[in-house]
Amino acid sequence: MQSPGIALGRKRVLSRCTPKMSGLTRVEVTFVMFVATLVIPSVLGMPVGWRDAHITYYGSPNGGGTQGGACAYQNTFSLGYGAMTAALSSPLFEGGAACGACYQLQCKRVQETRTVKNWCWSYSRTITITATNLCPPGSAGAWCDPPRHHFDLTMPAFLTLARREGGVAPVLYRRVKCVKRGGIRFTIGGNPWFLMILIHNVAGAGDVRAVRIKTPSTDWIPMYRNWGALWTVQRKLSGPLSFQITAGDRRQITINSAVGNAWKFGQTWEGHNFR
Questions:
Q1: Expansin-like EG45 domain: which residues (predicted)?
Q2: What range defines the domain where residue 134 resides?
Q3: Beta bridge mates, 187
Q4: pLDDT tens across 155-213, in order?
Q5: Strand ranges (E), the chain
Q6: Do 170 and 212 have their domain in common?
Q7: Where do the H-state alpha helices sit in 115-274?
Q8: Where residue 79 sits, what CATH number does that domain have?
Q9: pTM above threshold 0.85
């Protein structure tokens, strides 16, 4: 069946008459379209690959009060994430799937008026932050309410981009590659029948979308996301633990015997990482 407006197997015959569009000739229409191509980019101000969001801050000036959260990172400083982290609004957080993902933020240019002020230090300055927490709906100012894309930064991260007195600023953001030192780390928790593994320090995409676990006496067993970056299997396992991890960019990595034979609860083991 031929789709409307698409000529299949034959040439479309165009009229030689000069068409009229709301009283405009073809030359005038062409001119209007040319002007539009010049005006639209300056109005939108949106570089390719970037999206709109806003930033606020929480915690103390040194990042205190932001170390834990919905990704199950008990201390983002000791785990190597530092103070350049953020709590994401739920559309970005995706129920914890975004934990560990890295984002580049840049202040968005605003037209200043008597009621609108630019609080950013520089429009050219960028920072890279890691998703480590959730900014839940109902937070102050409704900035984190769906469907908004929002980053509630630690205060040190916010102050790198904007002045504290502003409190909120419009930004552009995009996903970027996470650069990490060392390998993927596995912190063992739970109990013998309910194993919980905190997977962190993931390079590349940074976020983890699927995990399978294996011992010398088992096949690959799917794990499920308990919450945040905590992955669980309800089965008693012993011996060295191997992992197969699928990241947010669909790349996979297999780490054989990432956790050694003599593992104990509370330990952290390290394997190789995405390149």
A1: 68-183
A2: 51-176
A3: 198, 268
A4: 999 999 999 999 999 999 999 999 999 999 999 999 999 999 999 999 999 999 999 99
A5: 51-58, 85-89, 102-107, 126-135, 150-154, 169-176, 185-191, 194-200, 208-214, 221-222, 224-227, 230-233, 241-247, 252-259, 268-270
A6: no
A7: 155-161
A8: 2.40.40.10
A9: no
